[in-house]
Amino acid sequence: MEASPALTEQLGPAAAAALMECIPPFGWHEIATKSDLTTLEEKLALRFDARMHAEMNRSIKWTVSAVFGGLAALGVAVGLVSAFVS
After folding, report:
1. What is the Rg, in whole angstroms, of the alpha carbon atoms belonging to the chain?
2. Which phi and psi angles does 75 have, rounded to 5°?
3. 66 to each of 26, 30, 63, how far by Cα in Å?
4. What is the pTM of this model?
5. Rounded distance between C-alpha atoms, residue 74 and residue 77, angstroms
6. Measured distance CA(18)–CA(12) in Å, rounded
7. How far apart are CA 29 and CA 43, in angstroms?
8. Cβ(1)–Cβ(25) below 8 Å
9. What is the rounded end-to-end Cα distance, in angstroms, of the chain?
10. Contact call for residues 14 and 2 (beta carbons, < 8 A)
11. What residue spans define the domains of the chain?
């Protein structure tokens, strides 16, 4: 982006060029504000919490199923051993 003639006249060519290099190459409307970042953080936190909740439910269901399956297998094994011992 080239400096305007008025800016060049006020600051001089080198200073005007240096100032123009500091301006982002996109519109100011594209820059995120602190409130934009806060909103994004809240949305990500909610999404993470929901995902974590779903994963914990899945893990608990799998663990409970595994424990009851193990207890059932243990019961069958004890029944078979007692049948052979008697």
Report:
1. 34
2. -60, -45
3. 56, 52, 5
4. 0.51
5. 5
6. 10
7. 21
8. yes
9. 95
10. no
11. 1-31, 32-86
Beta carbons of 7 and 16 less than 8 angstroms apart = yes
When pLDDT is averaged across residues 49-60 and rounded to a whole number, the result is 97
Q: Which of 1, 37, 45 is nearest to 19 (CA)?
A: 1
> Which of these, 4, 44, 1, lies nearest to 21 by C-alpha position?
1
Q: What mean pLDDT is predicted for residues 6-24? A: 90
**What does the block give as tokens for 46?**
């909610």
Residue 1 clears pLDDT 80, i.e. is over it: no
CB-based contacts of 31: which residues, under 8 Å, 6+ apart?
24
Closest CA to 18 of 6, 26, 8: 8
DSSP 30: G
The angle at the Cα of 2, spanning 11 to 20, to the nearest 5 degrees, equals: 55
Reduce the DSSP state of residue 26 to 3 states and report it: coil
Measured in residues, the chain has a length of 86
Give me 67's structure tokens: 């424990």
